Amino acid sequence: MELIEIVTRILSSILLDKGLSEEEAADISEHFACRLGKECGGEYIYLPKDLQTWTRRNKEIAKTFYEESEDSIVKKLSKKYGLTTRRIYQILKSYEDKQNRNKNNDK
Fold first, then answer.
1. First-last CA distance in the chain
2. Model confidence over 17-66: pLDDT tens digits?
3. What is the per-residue pLDDT across 57-92, written as a single tens digit (0 to 9) for each?
4. What are phi and psi of 49, to 5 degrees?
5. What range defines the domain where residue 35 resides?
6. Which of 79, 89, 91, 106 is the most exposed place for a label (fewest CB within 10 A)?
7. Do 29 and 55 fall into the same domain?
């Protein structure tokens, strides 16, 4: 099954649970799937199994990264969390982007 089909099915189910009609849920789910395809189509997408653990882990990685030298800490973090150094850099970039968005939204 394609990721886009899974996302559409899950979102539609959530919207139905929230009281939307089948037609409304299908329309919104399809619109979301199209938007997701435009934004992320052809990209590598990492989906964590547990969002809370993922968020906490990423904060710890970013905090540790900024407290120590970059090269040594990225290797330590990749070993500690069982991730590649590339994934650690992706997490740091994502975390930094989120922080910047939050700062811009506060203005």
1. 42
2. 999 999 999 999 999 988 988 888 888 888 888 888 888 998 888 888 77
3. 988 888 887 777 777 888 888 999 999 999 999 999
4. -75, -35
5. 3-40
6. 106
7. no
Cβ-count burial of 51 within 10 angstroms (0-12 exposed, 13-18 middle, 19+ buried)?
Answer: exposed
Residue of 75, 104, 101 lying closest to 87 (CA atoms): 75
Residue 87 is assigned to a structural domain of this protein? yes
Domain total in the chain: 2
pTM to 2 decimals? 0.48
Q: Is residue 46 part of a domain?
A: no
| Residue 31 and residue 8 share a domain | yes
Average pLDDT over residues 90-104: 86
**Tokens 């547990």 -> residue:** 50
Claim to verify: residue 94 and residue 58 sit in the same structural domain: yes
H helical segments located in the chain = 3-17, 22-40, 51-67, 70-81, 85-106
At 107, the pLDDT band (50, 70, 90 cuts) reads low
